[in-house]
Design brief:
Layout lengths: L5 H4 L12 H13 L5 E5 L6 H13 L13 H8 L5 E5 L6 H10 L10 E6 L6 H12 L5 E7 L7 H4 L3 E4 L5 H15 L5 H10 L4 H15 L6 H8 L4 H12 L3 H13 L4 H20 L10 H11 L4 H20 L3 H13 L7 H17 L55 H5 L20 H7 L4 H20 L1 H8 L2 E6 L2 E5 L5 H5 L2 H15 L4 E5 L10 H22 L1 H10 L13
Helix pairs in contact: 3-4, 5-6, 8-9, 9-10, 9-11, 10-11, 12-13, 12-14, 12-15, 13-17, 14-15, 14-16, 16-17, 18-26, 21-22, 21-24
This protein binds zinc ion.
Zinc ion binds next to helix 4.
Length: 610
């Protein structure tokens, strides 16, 4: 007794039998009925979707004794012989093997002759993209001036490899993958006729595993029937035979992932691994399952999902538990991880790590919702009479001095004020007694004349009584530092290197006629100072203070270290930054935004406007 495999036994004989390619059979049927049949056809699509089968049906339709007809009789000699592959006028050629020069010559010689019996001489060329150049040329010559009695039906899985000269002369039909539901329906019919009992889960698994190919579906069915013998085919058994996970397992895994339950994800994978499932295969099915979740969430045509009704309900229920953005993020994340799983020598670990990572994805905040809430917040704040908390009180010009720093925050505290060198004193403002008056204003009436050339010599004889006064940051010393820094700011434009070197000198004396800077004798900034630079600084100081002033350099140590302009600048910047941080942190909009975004304040920067 010979067993005919299901794929052959159930091969469609007419366009009506052709499953899942309705667009192809309808167009071809209409063309035949209208008597407008092309000379050459190109059938493209992945393997197992019915290209060669359709070519044979078309050959029968064209050559049937009762035709040409969209519904060949299947009884005449032509129909039967074409079905068996023995019709003398229908040539089935395998492109992959049809390369020899002799065969091509034979073809060329055959073409001009009329068919021996049939209406048309028909050439069905499978895997046409594999043809040799010589064979192409032979076909092309005929295609350019086709004899009325010749028809070509080319089939290929790779249409892009077919020369454009051939493509342009063919009527092209694209065969689609066959839907799982269509395959399942066909399987149900076949099983019924073959008298094999099977539950719905078994049919769904076979249909899904066929991945759009009816031929594969029939082969898989052969395989599971052979395994089950006389027994009923169950989903569980079929899943085992084919090494694929049942839908319910994929669903459990998907639910755990959506819920961020990494532990359950791992235990499901563990079970599958113990039962000997191919985890690469499971991962592929799972990716498809995640895709179904996204598609279900988007809604639209349920046929896009290609699921059985019960599965569709499950997928929709799970999809409703998560936001679309979250689902698509899971899908994208897993599709990237899938390549790792497929390539890895340890697919289980790769699979598990992907699931753990995706389980712990950070929560999503819907941007539009967030924006709406921020807008609402802004509206509320602008409606209130007072904005961010402000403070009253004196402006903290002397803020870098801890003792003098007012607790209050100046409303417009910004970057350091830059004093342009003028003949007048810088507008140093401070609260307090008379001693805080601008230095130059105080001393202007008593100009001292100090030769500028002395400025290049280290002034090791600076008076110690003046030095004592600088040990504590008095309001006067604060004002002095401000004035000194304004001199340096003026110098920085012209002589940046000199200004920088002077910035690192400890300000020991600052008064009309005399500025004394202290340096470590080995210090780099000291080495940087030049006579010309010191002269420039002296001139600038003279202009700023309104009286001839000389710069002296001391290299002797002092008991108490004073402050350099650079230190003063850094301290002031730090103070401003600290203030800015407090202001930013206390700002109601910032606080609300941090709350909404679950964010933290990482950094506050001052805008430099020097
Ligand atoms: Zn017939």
């Amino acid at each position: 007794m010979s067993y005919v495999v299901l794929a052959r036994k159930w091969r469609p004989q007419t366009f009506d039998d052709l499953i899942g390619q309705g667009h192809v059979s309808r167009t071809l049927g209409n063309a035949i009925a209208a008597g407008r049949v092309a000379h050459a056809f190109l059938f493209t699509g992945v393997r197992g979707v019915g290209k060669t089968t359709s070519a044979r049906i078309l050959a029968k339709a064209l050559n049937c004794a009762k035709g040409p007809t969209a519904s060949p009789c299947l009884e005449c000699s032509q129909c039967r012989e074409i079905g068996e592959g023995s019709d003398l006028d229908v040539f089935e050629i395998d492109g992959a093997t049809y390369t020899g020069i002799d065969k091509v010559r034979e073809l060329q010689e055959t073409l001009p002759y009329r068919p021996s019996r049939d209406r048309y001489k028909i050439f069905i060329v499978d895997e046409v993209h594999m043809l040799s150049q010589a064979a192409w040329n032979a076909f092309l010559k005929t295609l350019e001036e086709p004899p009325p009695h010749v028809k070509f039906i080319f089939a290929t899985t790779e249409a892009h490899k077919v020369p454009i000269t051939i493509l342009s002369r063919c009527q092209r039909y694209d065969f689609k993958l066959i839907g799982t539901n269509d395959i399942a329906a066909r399987l149900r019919h076949v099983l019924e006729v073959e008298k094999v009992t099977a539950d719905e889960a078994a049919i769904r698994i076979v249909a899904r595993e066929a991945a759009g190919s009816m031929r594969d579906a029939m082969s898989l069915l052969d395989q599971v029937i052979a395994w089950a013998g006389e027994e009923t085919l169950t989903g569980d058994a079929v899943a085992r035979v084919l090494g694929v996970a049942e839908r319910s397992v994929l669903h459990r895994l998907g639910a755990a992932l959506v819920d961020g339950d990494a532990a359950t994800c791992l235990s499901v994978v563990g079970e599958l691994a113990e039962q000997g499932f191919s985890l690469t295969h499971v991962a592929r099915d799972f990716l498809q399952h995640l895709r179904d979740l996204v598609a279900a969430k988007v809604g639209g045509d349920p046929s896009q999902l290609d699921l059985a009704d019960t599965e569709l309900a499950d997928v929709r229920a799970l999809a409703s538990r998560a936001a679309l953005d979250d689902l698509s993020r899971i899908y994208l994340g897993f599709s990237r991880a899938f390549d790792d799983v497929a390539r890895s020598a340890q697919p289980r670990s790769a699979f598990e790590m992907a699931l753990v990572r995706l389980s712990h994805r950070p929560p999503l905040v819907a941007v539009d919702e967030l924006l709406a809430r921020i807008a609402e917040l802004e509206k509320r704040l602008s409606a209130e009479p007072h904005g961010p908390p402000e403070t009253s009180g004196p402006k903290g010009e002397a803020g870098y001095d801890p003792a003098a720093t007012p607790k209050a925050t100046p409303p417009n505290a910004g970057p350091p004020v830059t004093f342009k060198p003028t003949t007048k004193a810088p507008p140093v403002r401070a609260t307090g007694p008379l001693t805080t008056l601008p230095v130059a204003e105080r001393h202007a009436p008593a100009p001292l004349s100090v030769p500028l050339r002395e400025s290049t010599e280290p002034a090791s004889t600076a008076s110690s009584e003046t030095a004592k006064a600088r040990d504590v940051a008095t309001p006067e010393s604060i004002a002095s530092m401000r004035a000194w820094r304004s001199v340096l700011d003026g110098l920085a434009h012209e002589k940046p290197l000199v200004a920088s070197a002077l910035e690192h000198g400890e300000l020991r004396v600052f008064e009309v006629g005399r500025i004394v800077l202290g340096y470590d004798p080995d210090s780099f900034p000291l080495a940087q100072l030049t006579e010309a630079g010191l002269l420039d600084a002296g001139q600038l100081a003279t202009a700023t203070l309104g009286a001839p002033t000389t710069l002296f350099i001391e290299t002797t140590a002092r008991a108490t270290k004073g402050q350099t302009a650079a230190e003063s600048r850094n301290l002031e910047r730090q103070r401003q930054l600290d203030e800015a941080k407090v202001r930013v942190t206390n700002h109601p909009i910032v606080g609300a935004a941090m709350e909404l975004l679950r964010a933290e304040l990482r950094e506050v920067r001052l805008i430099e406007n020097t």
